[in-house]
Amino acid sequence: MRRNNYRPLARPLWICYQCRAAHSAAANDLRTGQKRNRLIPKTPARTRFAPSPTGYLHLGSIRTALFSFLLAKRTGGQFILRIEDTDKKRTIPDAERRLQDDLRWVGLQWNEGEYYIGLDVWQLGRNTKGSAGPDRGGPYGPYRQSQRTAIYQSYAHDLLTRGHSYRCFCTPERLDMLARHRSQIGLPAGYDRKCIDIRLDEAQERAAKGETYVVRLMVDDYPKFDDLVYGKTGQIASSITKNKLDFMDRVYDDPILLKSDGCPTYHLASVVDDYMMNITHVIRGTEWMSSTPMHISLYNAFNWTPPRFGHVPLLVDENGQKLSKRNADIDISFFRDQQGILPSALVNFAALLGWSHSQKSDVLLLQDLQQIFNLKITKGNTVVSFEKLWFLQKAHAQRVVVTGGAEFKNMVTKVSEAVERQWPRNQLESILHGRTLFEYISLLLRADAKSYTNIEAFLSRNNTFFTASLNRPPYVATSSKKLSSSAETSSSSVAEIHVPLSTLCTAAIALCLVPESHWTAETHRLNIASYNGAVDKSGAKEDLAADRAFERELYHFLRWALSAGAPGPGIPETMEILGRAESIRRLEEARGLTCGMTKSISGFAHNNERPKDPSRKTNSGHTWMGSLAPR
Ligand code: GLU
Q: What integer pLDDT is reported at residue 330 of this predicted model?
């Protein structure tokens, strides 16, 4: 059994076998002092995430929750959500709902724990074994501290009768005077134990008469402890050389367990809950590390075996400053709603903050992390670089597009909704040519996934796909650009090849000879490639250079013609997405702007017939149309 013969209060009737096994194994490891594998427990871990609804989830807390979740999953254990809502004054009304939504959004579904819709949902799972359902709950509920006050009170009173705690009747005025006196003579704050000698029966009587009191833990020395991340750590003495000081100047921590309103402090509540809920591993932020020796003292007073503690380091910016609202340690909705970050990218990013792995790639899904997670967590502050987040975002966007499925559908739907908000329906209709917006966006996402960061940036980069009026800047040939820059640098080494605009226009228009049935990126790619070597095939250096110059110039011209020079998918893909009619319209418009001709192929451009003689000859007599030529 995990605990010794001390059993002050009734525990839940049923404790699952796994929990029992986990606890006794963890306790055995500690008791026998065996050198444990620090990186991963050998038995299933029961971990918990215990947020206070005084704020929303931010990057640091999502990472703490993630590490707890992963430790439980990696070891086949359970992850519990407990709401620590004892600070009524600072509670934000929608915080609990928001943090549950955020946890679910990133995929950290708890096995047991609170659910915000029904206060008594925990009872749903009371008789179930293992994970609770349908909306969580579980055998150790309630999982919301404000519903457990009576439990904390009975545990605190039990410590009173066993002499490990005492009632303190000191008034706030006395405590204030004590604090001021201590501060004047340069001593740390603390309590002088004035009430420690009040006999239990006398204290009980005073309490019964309605005198205000708090319950304090009597503690002389705080133990060291073995942190899963930091190793042996902790402070030793809470009392200081009492004999050398006047009575008033003696200092004891003697932390308050029960406040004067009968409510528990965080310390009592979290220790009692972790014990009652059979938590084997507590993963939390380093801000709680200084409280841990006190918590262990409390476990000792109860005669309970403490869980293992692992404290995860602080997140700091590149200047070593704690992340704050100014440098993006804002709640998760900022990443989701304003930055458009995918949940998989955020989870991946959070996992890499202070944790290292030996995989080849940093791009990892939650299910991968569950397989490989361990406690190889860096000591010391973790510097957060948001460049990594954007790298992961791009990688996950590409994965979503390549994998397809529900995640891709969701992405397409969101982009489509944003498009409909930004462009009027009738304008979109003229571009869609009978296709649904969903189909159109799917094509566009597939073609330009490599550059996807978020919806806003994606639409801004690809906005020419949603409007017929391109407002192209005047066309500037790349060769003219080169010529002018080489003239500036008086370089004579680059013999520039000037490709006449009329040639470019003809080549571009010839690409439109493809009938609707063959209008695919692949056909366009082949056709453009077939221009290579169109000038001459003698293999002479100049000819190759001419080919390259022609190809480069043609791409440049096509991009200008089809998307006003904006970056985006490749030219073949752009032509496929725009479709035949819109591509031809744009190319003809471009020809009109550069070569002054507006009518040439439009006669057949808008029907689906295959041209009778689609091949074209260059001056040197080579076939240009590659795959278009009859086979
Ligand atoms: N309620 C505490 C918080 O929100 C949790 C501390 C703990 O994990 O023990 O920070």
A: 73
